[in-house]
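hey all, quick one before standup. I had two proteins in the batch that finished overnight and I want to keep them in one place so we stop losing track of which output belongs to which input. First protein below, input sequence then structure tokens straight from the run.
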Amino acid sequence: MTTQQRTATRSRIHPAWVVAAVTLLALVAAATFRSSTGVLMEPIEGEFGWDRATTSGAVSLNLVLYGLAAPFAAAVMERFGIRRTVTTALVVVGVASGATLVMTSPWHLWLLWGFVIGLGTGAMALVFGAIVANRWFVAHRGLVTGLFSAANATGQLLFLPVIAWTATELGWRAAAGIVAVLSLVVAVLVGLFLTDRPSDRGLMPYGVAEGYAVTDPGPPSENPAVTALRVLRQASRHWAFWALALTFWVCGWSTNGLVQTHLVPAAHDHGMPATAAAGLLALVGIFDVVGTIASGYLTDKVDPRLLLCAYYALRGLSLLTIDALLAPHVQPGMWVFIVFYGLDWVATVPPTVALCRTHFGLQRSGVVFGWVFAAHMVGAGAGAWVAGAIRTATGTYANAWVTAAVLCLLAAAVCWTIPRRAVDGDREVAAA
């Protein structure tokens, strides 16, 4: 170990934590626009006269492309670097968010909100956090993954009430402008402070024992698209991949697709003001931070398969109650739902990332998780569209909640079928 490495090891704050802080900030910025869709949906419909199927379709496209971009973004990060990839993505999101201020036709919404921002935020999906955690951390890797997973909730907590108030008082364009400015500011910070690999600074990952050799293969020379497809072909030969993809598909359906997109409109159907409903969604974010960090901690200590079984089963049971709890005013039962559902919101991410690493190795796990996350967001897109279609056809979201509940209970059963496989931790570190 070099003198610089010993100094960094003895310092009070390892540079890995600085990288983690910048990563968390970028993930919060990416989450802010996605969490705002449910709030901006009705004002946009009111101004342009577009129906719910049109706006839900744009949201669905956004969610699907957000997920499908993830494995390719992971490969691009491996090839060209995390900092360059994420900075570019933030600029794209900021410019596209600003361009929505002058849209006039549904295809503008689909192009900017659905296509461009879907791809841009896809480069900053949870796979980004998984790669950073795998590269920079050995100790507390599950906990750090939980922190990154909580970024989506943090975006809701910090910015959703602001966006809801702005959309109500100043119009949806002012709210979209907040997102544009935030993205561009964070792009500058990422460009200045995010470091791709510990070896770029002559360091080793946080938690590696002194004197332990870490092999850094460096950036691959292979085309990123080829890398992503090759890893998909290899991973798809194993049931563990399909089980994780299927259950994460349900996770996306029941969170981003259904609750994040439709909770505010559904509550408004029951007479609740949009600002109050947005406040409830923000509270989900508060408890999600607690639940996801706790899940990351548990993932370091408990069989991740058992955690996933519990999370999906409990989520399914909670969704069976929501339609009866919605009312013009927040009832006591709704507070229970918000706390319970918030704790479970993205608690599935740390154990899913851990199982990708367990079954496919540290080096491939980022791209593998990218494909699993793609399934998550395809499920989110499907859930958003189906819920919107059910609402258009029946005038209520009741059947949408029941459908998601059944899918969650089925996902819990699938988790039992994921094989157990021991991991050689030393071999993992050597491949970092």
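OK second protein, same deal, sequence then tokens:
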Amino acid sequence: MGAQYYGADSENGDRIDDPSEDALFMLISDLDDSDNTFLVIQPDENDPAWFASVAVLDEGGYEIVRRDTARNEHEVTAETSINDIARDLTIWLAARDFAGRPTTQAGAFSNPA
């Protein structure tokens, strides 16, 4: 069975469907500067509207790219803490739009006066 929302794929072929924060931490921890230098997280669909990637930097640390064309977002940052990267990506991923996932609307549950 494939990912319900998105998958995380490492350069070395490791894949985790709908990864948790702990799973992202593990995938990032497994990155190195020789044959597993990056991972990409994106929906399992043709021409996805968004993606995030984490790549090992030559000078140490990681480059994190977050891009969402539907929201006109493109951010590139550098970070050394795997904990911070995994947490920040988990929060960012939770705000993405996924096909088939119900959306919430502000005021949908409010009681009109």
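Flagging for whoever picks this up: The two ends are 46 Å apart (CA to CA). The beta strands are 7-10, 15-17, 38-42, 50-56, 62-68, 73-79.
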